Amino acid sequence: MEVVYEDNHIIIVNKKSGEIVQGDKTGDRPLSDLVKDYIKEKYHKPGEVFLGVVHRLDRPVSGLVIFARTSKALTRLNKMFAEGDVHKTYWAIVSKRREDTGEWHTLEHWLVRNEKQNKSYAYDSEKSNAKKAILKYRVIGQGDNYSLVEVNLMTGRHHQIRCQLAKIGSPIKGDLKYGAPRSNPDGSISLLSRRADFIHPVSKERIVVEAPLPDDALWRALAPKTTTSTDIPPE
Description:
Layout: E1 2-6, E2 10-15, H1 31-42, E3 52-53, E4 62-68, H2 71-82, E5 87-95, E6 105-114, E7 119-123, E8 131-142, E9 146-153, H3 160-167, E10 191-199, E11 206-210, H4 217-222
Parallel strand pairs: 4-10
Antiparallel strand pairs: 1-2, 2-4, 3-4, 5-9, 5-10, 6-7, 6-8, 8-9, 10-11
């Protein structure tokens, strides 16, 4: 487990693909338990350690996960996530996009979630039980067969990035569920929760953190040598 930021109220860790954030029906030990163990050992905490889960990442996805270490931080972070005040940036390796590097594009679809399949389906027009999904993306790196795209979510829907990118013919590398032709050797999909930018719920200071790139030659080849932190998508 890799901690990228911590203080008395929050802790941010870099999740590995394959880890689950919170316990589920598989019975596998979740990342939240590992973080509790880390806090208990580092700070010699007696008894039960408090840790609040405020958001999740799909199991095959890697990158930043924010946890609350106090009830005050948990309440405020929950409100911030609900109101879109935590700005998260994702990077994804997708099938080649024939687009100019750096130009922002907006995707709007209607997503219907199939609980039994644990999958969402995207439609161009409104459907019964559908939820509107909006994201902005741009190509930031290109290779012979793949592109690296940067994604900013305007809404938070089930499998939104995976589903919407697949809908435009660019499934995420390794994501068999959404149309990738083959899996990644480690079972991951090439989607990274890359960056988080928000105002600390207690100290009110700006927090900006980045997850390291996966240890993979394709990620390193496609990643831009420099990124501009202030270059956010237009409203």
